[in-house]
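target protein:
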Amino acid sequence: MSRRFKFLSVGISVIGFKNAVKQISARNYPLPGYVCFADTFVVSQASKDVGLNAILAQACMVMPDGKPLQWFARLQGHKEVTTVSGLHLCTSLLNTGMSHYFYGADDKVIQKIKKNLTIKFPAAKILGFKAPPYLKMEDLKDSAVVAEDIYAINKLKPDLVWIGISSPKQDYLMHHFYTQLDKSLLLGVGGVFLYLADDSLLSPEWLKNLGFRWLYRLIKEPRRLWPKYYKALGFIIKNAGHFLSAFLSRSRVSRSISEIV
């Protein structure tokens, strides 16, 4: 279990992108296990969903997915924390000797991912692809189809299983089924499957570095992302006092240190 900092009620791993790649490629994690990616939306959901919060707490790692989490970690003195993008983590690990399985999206998206990854990562050890059935979150645990899929994946024994369904549904799926995999690490990367299928959806790096990746994505996919971002924005506004308090507290500590020196 990784060292964590608190983003409101949710524990987020104290980790940066390079260290995330290093830890996973070195297989420095317990098995079986799963990795969650927490952006502001996931934190907002976990803050009112005790079950989801517990699922995040039991994950091997909870990656800080987005600039707000990185900035808040820095306010708490964790300078090593950087945004860990699920897409960049996936593409980096495809260049290692680890084996992979992709479970998510729909058949149309899966076919596009197959084509793109074959071209861009010809040496990658990809053991399979599968689009899961569409299920409500409350039906995941008892789904015979998902159970059969997990059984089939376990027979292949991939190092990494990339889960591409929406949050928090993917977090519940990983939590319900990860113990049925002998040697695999599950990683819930959500919409990353869409970007693997169509890289025109990706924001420019300079925009991402400024913290406006969300705006680019919203312009590209308003119908899919507006409800999620609307909830996340409301959550940030509602908790603005907490973020301001953290900033002022950090400023006071920095000022005290400088006065001592």
About this structure: The first strand starts at residue 4 and ends at 7. The beta strands are 4-7, 10-13, 33-38, 61-64, 99-104, 125-130, 160-164, 185-188.
